[in-house]
Amino acid sequence: MNLTSEGSDPNSDLIFVNFNQDCSSLAVGTKKGYKLFSLSAIEKLDKIYEQDNEDICIVERLFSSSLVAVVSLTSPRKLKVCHFKKGTEICNYSYSNSILAVKLNRLRLIVCLEESLYIHNIRDMKVLHTIRDTPPNPVGLCALSINNDNSYLAYPGSNQIGEVQIFDTVNLSMLQASMNYSWLITAYSQRAVTMIPAHDNPLAAMSFSSHGEMIATASEKGTVIRVFKVPDGCKIFEFRRGVKRCVQISCLAFSTDGLYLCSSSNTETVHIFKLENTKDKPQEESHGWMDYLSQAVKSSATYLPSQVSDMLKQGRALATARLPNSGLKNICALSMIQKMPRLLVASQDGFLYIYNMDPVEGGECTLLKQHKLDGSLECIQNEESSVHHDGPLVQPGGVASYANTVRQHDDGSPDSSPDPMHHGNLGDRATGNNPLTNDLERLRLDDDNEFPPMTHKND
Questions:
Q1: pLDDT of amino acid 379
Q2: What is the spatial distance between Cα 99 and Cα 57, in angstroms, rounded to a whole number?
Q3: 9: helix, coil or strand?
Q4: How many angstroms separate the Cα of 274 from the Cα of each of 219, 228, 335?
Q5: What percent of the chain has a predicted confidence (pLDDT) above 70?
Q6: Beta partners for 432?
Q7: Does the global pTM surpass 0.85?
Q8: CA-CA distance, 355 to 343, in Å (whole number)?
Q9: Which helix (DSSP H) or strand (DSSP E) does residue 405 occupy?
Q10: What is the band of 3 on the pLDDT scale with cuts at 50, 70, 90?
Q11: SS3 for 182?
Q12: How far is CA 150 from the centre of its chain?
């Protein structure tokens, strides 16, 4: 969630906040730097790392590794890939326009500009492919699947209607949908282009499931959320978020198992939908007049206008959560924390809200904790700790937590900054400085338990 376009709040330093790919950590960018927090417990935000020297508008962490990609407000056209545990910069690249979004998985790093996307090989940061002349995308809307086998990139195919274009970042080609009307062949690229006609209005949000087999979309109207199968583009679910008002949906997120989908907007309500086909649900016996009325409405749907019948067929939210404020931008995620399903919402108001969720009965989610995104231990629900958390990032004793394991500094002298080994001109759009090319080739990006996941040599 990038707040640079939301206007500057003089009372807040918050610029950016986002969950990593598996929702195990939270990245926060501020006017003073950035911070990484572990999300392994609900009682507190355990700080992993803090850097204070520049205003950070984008910070993306690769799973639980020590690799982060950062962009500052001071240099919005420059991407820096860093090893936060070593405190070293691995490489940097400059682009022709401001960077609007950065997406990571273990194979690719995507840089989104307003009218182009750059696909980097994350192991050596070489530019593998550039998608140019995309429809104007001023907010940098795009999505990257985190699955290695289905490493798909999705971005808007139009700025007038809600078309989704999906690109295979491994084979570097567009996916061809099975529906004859949703693809075309471009003479320029000689590749099949998949255009999923998702909505009548321009896209506002989209997200892949963890396996990359589904993509959820919402338009700027914000009343209907659709889920499509990837790569064939068939619609498999449709949910109605609301009827009374149009909203700005800011985030869609699947649960890790792909059974639930959450949606947050500029309203005070966060919705959770269950991805199940009604025909797979056991038929329940009617017990009251409301059940009989519901059955009568469903049976008469075939005689109603298509717009009305479509509305009756749309799914409703299994569960909802109430935020204390409305009119603010926020992001949401579904995660297992302490072996229980939790709904996480990071809001523009500077708080992280953690809700308990009943995956069977649904209903109203219970607010468990409310943490400040500045990293302090103060908690609105339970101010149970007065320990100051901004001291040295070293655990004095006892069993090391996950966050402390990551943030402990290595013994010995700090890494020296080697002279650049490579400076290449990547066409006329991007230039890169990659001083540690050999070390990048040896990255163990598939091992989240290794700290750090890569080795640097000291010159």
A1: 52
A2: 10
A3: coil
A4: 20, 15, 15
A5: 68
A6: 93, 424
A7: no
A8: 5
A9: helix 402-407
A10: confident
A11: helix
A12: 16
Q: Which two tokens stand for residue 190?
A: 């000689």
CA–CA distance, 334 with 336 (Å, rounded to integer): 7
CA distance 257 to 213: 12
Which residue is listed with tokens 């889920």?
227
Query: DSSP string covering 42-92, please?
Result: SS--EEEEEEESS-EEEEEE-TTSSEEEEEESSSTTEEEEEETTTTEEEEE
Mean predicted confidence (pLDDT) in 19-35: 96
**What are the residues whose beta carbons fall under 8 Å from the beta carbon of 406, sequence distance 6 or more?**
38, 48, 49, 64, 66, 85, 451
| pLDDT the model gives residue 194 | 79
User: Can you tell me the mean pLDDT for 39-52?
Assistant: 93
213 vs 275: CA distance, rounded Å: 13
Tell me the residue type at 187: A
Of the candidates 374, 307, 405, the one whose C-alpha atom is nearest the C-alpha of residue 15 is 374
Residue 442 forms beta bridges with which residues? Answer: none
- The predicted-structure confidence for 393-437, as pLDDT tens digits, reads as follows 333 333 344 455 445 544 443 343 333 333 333 444 577 766 555
pLDDT of residue 276: 87
pLDDT class of 375 with cuts at 50, 70, 90: confident
What is the C-alpha separation between 91 and 93, in angstroms, rounded? Answer: 7
Q: How far apart are CA 226 and CA 6, in angstroms?
A: 26
Burial class of residue 73, CB neighbours in 10 A (0-12, 13-18, 19+): middle
Token pair 């639980």: residue: 64
Sign of CA dihedral 47, 99, 1, 336: negative
Nearest CA-CA partner of 124 in 104, 102, 100, 108: 108
Rounded CA gap, 115 and 365, in Å?
Answer: 40
Question: pLDDT: is 339 or 292 the higher one?
Answer: 339
Partnered with residue 370 across adjacent β-strands are 353
- Average of pLDDT values for 265-274? 95
Higher pLDDT, 102 or 449: 102
Phi, psi (deg, nearest 5) at residue 451: -125, 115
Helix (DSSP H) and strand (DSSP E) numbers for the chain: 4, 33
Cis peptide before 392 (omega within 30 of 0): no
Helix, strand, or coil here: 344? strand
Of 137, 126, 117, 65, nearest to 91 by C-alpha is 126
End-to-end CA distance of the chain: 38
Rg of the chain in Å (alpha carbons): 23
User: How far is 125 from 33, CA to CA, in rounded Å?
Assistant: 24
